TrEMBL record:
It comes from Bimuria novae-zelandiae CBS 107.79. The keyword Ribosomal protein does not apply. One of its GO terms (molecular function) is superoxide dismutase activity. Keywords: Antioxidant, Secreted, Signal. This is superoxide dismutase. Residues 47-166 form the Superoxide dismutase copper/zinc binding domain. The keyword Iron does not apply. It comes from the Eukaryota. One of its GO terms (cellular component) is extracellular region. InterPro entries: SOD-like_Cu/Zn_dom_sf (IPR036423), SOD_Cu/Zn_/chaperone (IPR024134), SOD_Cu_Zn_dom (IPR001424). It is an enzyme of class 1 (oxidoreductase). Residues 186-195, 207-231 have a biased composition (Low complexity).
Length: 259
């Protein structure tokens, strides 16, 4: 019995350790993706789009989201990037769990003041849930990748909209509009998509509902993200640091039992 208990403790101690998401600093300039949403079943009036492009300086991405026809009940509404694509039959459940390459998990809830500790795909957790029947927002996310080889790459995955009880009411796959060019300088910037509707309200953190700016030629310009420093190691008190400390303490406890 004692041996079984020790083995169980060792299994817990050697489990996958969660890490904070790193800031993505080398996204190909000009990479662009779009997902067109349509509500399922009782939520067929819901329509919208999510457009994500490499930030003009290659650090993270710029996100534009516009939704209309959300239900009058069931909010606040959440939206996340999920780990799998939606199959041809449109089954949102088949999209799997949230994009979470650093094994953070859904509990505890995302702390928007510490976005690096949240699941990479938890967009509403990091930037605010939706609290109205129409919604439009533009913001930067430093932790999503447009580089195929990066664990935080989302281009072959999907976006899912949920009721507050986690029911999936709309989903869509991302479509690549442009792969971008990793050799392009940051000053070249990027442009994509169409202007978002104005007037949408939202409860986002560090998000602003606004139309996309346009250049002198009339082409919309993706907003520029501000560079964010990436710590070399998890700061004291971070999720990764706490898990590492807990693992060390557990090993010490097991060693004591075996004496």
């Amino acid at each position: 019995m004692r041996t079984q208990s020790i083995l169980s403790l060792l299994a817990v101690a050697t489990a996958v350790v969660a890490e904070d998401a790193p800031v993505i600093e080398s996204n190909p300039i000009g990479a662009q993706y779009e997902a067109l949403l349509k509500g399922k079943k009782d939520w067929s009036s819901l329509t919208g789009s999510v457009k994500i492009a490499s930030a003009a300086n290659g650090t993270g991405v710029s996100v534009e989201i516009a939704l209309a026809g959300l239900p009058t009940e069931g909010g606040p509404f959440m939206y996340h990037i999920h780990e799998k694509a939606v199959p041809e039959d449109g089954n949102c459940t088949a999209a799997g769990a949230h994009l979470d390459p650093y094994k953070r998990g859904e509990v505890p809830l995302c702390d928007a003041s510490k976005k690096q500790t949240c699941q990479t795909g938890d967009l509403s957790g990091k930037h605010g849930n939706i609290t109205s029947t129409s919604f439009a927002a533009t913001y930067n996310d430093a932790y999503l990748a447009t580089l195929l080889s990066d664990p935080s790459y989302f281009g072959d995955k999907s976006i899912v909209v949920h009721l507050s009880n986690k029911t999936r009411i709309a989903c869509a796959n991302f479509k690549q509009l442009s792969p971008g060019n990793a050799s392009t300088t940051a000053s070249a910037g990027s442009s994509y998509g169409t202007a978002l509707p104005t007037g949408g309200s939202h409860g986002g953190h560090n998000s602003t509902a606004s139309a996309t700016a346009t250049s002198t030629t009339g082409a919309p310009i993706a907003p520029t993200a501000s560079p964010t420093a990436s710590p070399a190691q998890p700061p004291p008190g971070s999720g990764a640091a706490k898990v590492a400390v807990s693992g060390a303490a557990l090993f010490a406890f097991v060693a004591a039992l075996m004496i």
